[in-house]
Design brief:
The protein is mainly β. The chain contains 2 helices and 12 strands. The protein starts with 40 loop residues before the first strand and ends with a strand.
Amino acid sequence: MPSPNLLYTGSHQEPGPYVFTGPVTFSGAVTAPSGFSGTTSIGGANASAALSPVNPADIGLKAWSFPNYLALGTASAVTVVGSVYMSAVHLTAGVSYSNLYLKLQANGGTANAGSNFAGLYNSAGQLVATTADLATRLGTNAGTTGYITCPLTAAYTPSAGGLYWVAAQFNFANAGSFPAFYTMTNFITVTTSAGTTSTGIAAPTGTTPYPYAAIATAAATALPATTALTSVGTTGAYVFWAGAA
């Protein structure tokens, strides 16, 4: 077994297996690339699947807001024209992202050309990546439903890992027929019962960003270049599924 307080500065593999009879504590940061590539056993039972039954990579993604199999949602999560909807994903430093993904289950309107976009915001509230207009991809009338691929105009590679927000903004000609998101089962709208504060996207501690928000932009036709994440409202926000790859 490795001695305590060892520092490995490069790639290192311990052939194991090792048995830890007490608590295992990492007192410092565990930085990428790192991980456990084999089977994790607890009490002699294989716990790997239970710990992570499905990962983003299993369906060709690099990040998601929550597992796609939990996005069963409801058609009541209808978007408002021009508003910006935000859902947080965890991006990895040094990894290139070329596409964002949304999951829509109702899309009865006709998209206005030049005013439907998706993008990425960093933790400073800066728009760091955006798509071209999505009107053609959204379609007309019955439109496109299910998973929607939203290509970024340029691949984005974050220099720092952490929370980023997938943002989506729709403008449709038919009022009341805007796209509806697939949302987390039993968590459609963002309320205090979902753990948010009354304003902003801060968690109850006030220090950790909350993952869902909405910006009422009075029928704006483009994503704002910057937004103050600490003051973005949760009124009208949805717990919607988003992915990145």
